Amino acid sequence: MTALDSRRFRLGFATFVLFTGIAGDFWRNSFSWYGYGVFVVVIAAISIVVLIHNRARFRIASLPYPLLAFIALAFLSIAWSYYPGFTVLGAVVLLLTTASAVSIAVTVTWPDLLIVLGWVFRLVLGLSFLFEFIVSAIIRHPIYPVWITPESHPAKLLYWSRDLLFDLGKIQGIVGNSSLLAMAALIGLIVFAIQLASKTVKRGSGWFWLAVAIATIVITRSATIVVALVVVIVVALAALLVRRARTPKGRAYAYGGIVFAITFFSVLAVAQQGRILALLGKSSDFTGRFTIWNEVIQLAQQRPGQGWGWLGYWIVWIAPFNTLKKAGGVQPPHAHDAWLDIWLQLGILGLVVFGALVLATLLRSWLIAINPVVISPRDPGSHLWLSLLPVLVLTAQLVQSIAESRILLEGGLMLLVIWAVKTKTSPLGLGPVEPELSPATLRRRP
């Protein structure tokens, strides 16, 4: 057995990759974009080696077809791109990001993936509070990333930390953005709760990190994440309700109740939209989101079918992005809505392909969440808390996609690819059981 086959390497590499994806700004702000580029090249190279080494464990044809179509469309958009050189770069980055995620999906089992995610989000949240404490207790003033010089009078939106910890303000953590930190806390909350419920971590440690995640959500006060938390809780309760139904008739009643509840609360939310926004501390235009969305829609309508060409992150100094209004003195790096971003870059065709990818992944994740897991031929099957992981995290990502484009970028894209690939190639309770899946591994503590 080589080092690439060891469980220690698989878990360590997966942790490093996902941490870099979720907290890429930590590396960029600490070591500049050039330093970050080194990390990306190393990850890409190792991921390719891992995939080649494990080529017997998967085939490209076994990957979700919408995922393959999405990558193919990004490369095809080079032909009609308004900025072909940058589209080449964006398509290559998309391919390498996907390859990194696939290397995790095919080499890390479901129980070990839960362990890896626990490590990643403990690191992100723990380092964020340590970082903010150092800034507030020792440095005592806001700081910029290393690649920004204060002498250039940069916008305050570019602050890495605003020195707000002791004021219980909206801290930004190592990711440099309070909304992104809140999202990390929400996913962490899901992961820590599942670990506690499945008894794969010690109770003291589990409750401590659960409290850290909740505290982070409270401090960051992100309206999008508050809504996402509510939706995640609703989806979790719905899945548990369907699980309890033992007969087809019982499941029909359960689904009927879910549809009624969703319809009722949706109508209520629309009717009370103003009060809800006021409660969440948001203006009626979602703190300037409408301005960005309107401009993006106007651009997308100029090339509605095929889009302007794939980029991922916008290259803000080239047309047409340099014509958009600045927010707080900063050119927006994305559309603050993943679906508008897809329409802008890949047109209606891109929306269809990406929508198919999300819908198929969501459906498989839901089926995994509600069906029992059969570990052996004689096992009658049992419901696992672990089975809720993909549908709950993907739900949080989809709510976030309404106000952010992160599901198309870095860690957000990695998680989507992992759910898409893993729910198709090794679905809990819906297909062949992973060789390492057993009662012992399901309860293995990190």
What does this structure look like?
There is one protein chain. With 446 residues, the chain is mostly helical. The chain has one domain. It contains 15 helices and no strands. Helix 4 (84-107) packs across helix 14, helix 6 packs antiparallel against helix 7 (203-220) and helix 12 (338-370) packs antiparallel against helix 13 (389-400). The protein starts with 6 loop residues before the first helix and ends with a helix.
Brief characterization of the structure:
It is built from 15 helices and no strands. With 446 residues, it is mostly helical.
Number of domain units: 1
Beta-strand fraction estimate: under 5%
**Largest sheet, strands/sense/barrel:** none
Count of β-strands: 0
Instruction: Identify the overall geometry.
Output: globular
**SSE string, helices as H and strands as E:** HHHHHHHHHHHHHHH
Helical percent range?
55-70%
Query: Which consecutive residue ranges, at least 5 long each, have pLDDT under 50?
Result: none
Find the structural class using helix and strand composition. Answer: mainly alpha
Strands, helices and their partners?
Blueprint: H1 7-22, H2 24-53, H3 65-76, H4 84-107, H5 110-139, H6 178-197, H7 203-220, H8 223-244, H9 248-271, H10 273-280, H11 289-300, H12 338-370, H13 389-400, H14 410-425, H15 439-442
Helix pairs in contact: 1-2, 1-4, 1-5, 1-14, 2-4, 3-12, 4-14, 5-6, 6-7, 6-8, 6-13, 8-9, 8-13, 11-12, 12-13, 12-14
Task: Give structural attributes.
446 residues, mainly alpha, 0% strand, globular
